Hints:
The chain is of the alpha/beta class. 34% of the residues lie in helices and 24% in strands. The chain has two domains: 1-108 and 191-290, 3-Layer(aba) Sandwich (Rossmann fold); 115-188, no CATH class. It has helices at 59-66, 98-107, 126-137, 143-156, 173-185, 203-220, 231-237, 255-261, 265-272, 283-287; strands spanning 16-27, 33-44, 48-52, 74-84, 90-92, 109-112, 191-195, 223-228, 240-245, 248-254. Helix 4 (143-156) crosses helix 5. It is globular. The chain binds adenosine-5'-triphosphate. Adenosine-5'-triphosphate binds at residues 27, 29, 33, 35, 53, 55-61, 73, 229.
Amino acid sequence: MSTTTQEHADPLTRRPVLTVRDLTVVYETEQPVTAVSSASLQLHRGEILGLAGESGCGKTTLAYAVNRLHQPPARIAGGSVVFHDRDGGDVDLLALKDEPLRKFRWTQLSMVFQGAMNSLNPVRTVGYQLDDTLRAHDPSMSRARRRERAAEVLTRVGVDPVRLRSYPHELSGGMRQRTMIAMAMLMQPQIMIMDEPTTALDVVVQREILREILRLRDELDFAVLFITHDLPLLLEIADRIAVMYRGEIVELETAQKLHEAAQHPYTRKLLGSFPSLTGERSDFVRAGAHDRDGRQEEWSV
Ligand SMILES: Nc1ncnc2c1ncn2[C@@H]1O[C@H](COP(=O)(O)OP(=O)(O)OP(=O)(O)O)[C@@H](O)[C@H]1O
């Protein structure tokens, strides 16, 4: 349903860049919690795939596990995650050793986390932090080239490169979030996972940044796994949407089909809770899947 991407070749006709199959993640606590249960999805080159679902349904756990950023007590209990490189090779992400995994992150797959704008180092300038990432991942790059590249990515996300000399507290929330997106783009990854990248921002800034993400995707041809509980937003920007409910992906469809003929009752409930794509979002969507009395609703899956 994305409107800014009409010249873009239909991503669904293109090769996949990531295949997640039957991924299961368990928190090994006293009462083990299966946060992700046999989840499967495929991300195509240049695609924006939305992952929607209420708070606590397992979206973040899935994103972290894909990039092996999960920490104990989380454990991947089964399944596979395969990256399909541009050059034709396949990489089994769950089998990667530490060093190749470190290289893989940022260069092939980068993440913009929930509240990432607060994860910039407060005592270092933006320029230093971009330079540091470049140095860590490409030691052969000259200082001049690094400076050039840092200015380039900031410009791309709509931040004046004069801000390279700024400290994070000197930037607005929107600028900090754009800077985090610039950081994620630094090494030209083939996949970006964005976990609620704009939720903390006001609606106008949020829209601007989303428009920017769509434009960059068209220009630079990366794929995005875009995680949010905001289904209306996904209907506007995503090519396809996966709906997650209690650790399972219960539906995965094009945004259009999902909007017109959702199959799963939970998806229908989510969709039915706002009057139109452009209308006001209802309290239901803002609050997550709770009924008016605040009770968690139940669907058999
Ligand atoms: N460290 C942990 N130990 C035990 N259980 C956890 C831990 N972290 C998350 N969980 C559980 O795993 C499930 C999935 O959580 P997760 O954060 O992945 O959901 P989410 O859909 O990303 O939610 P949100 O939108 O609020 O970020 C939840 O039931 C949560 O309680």
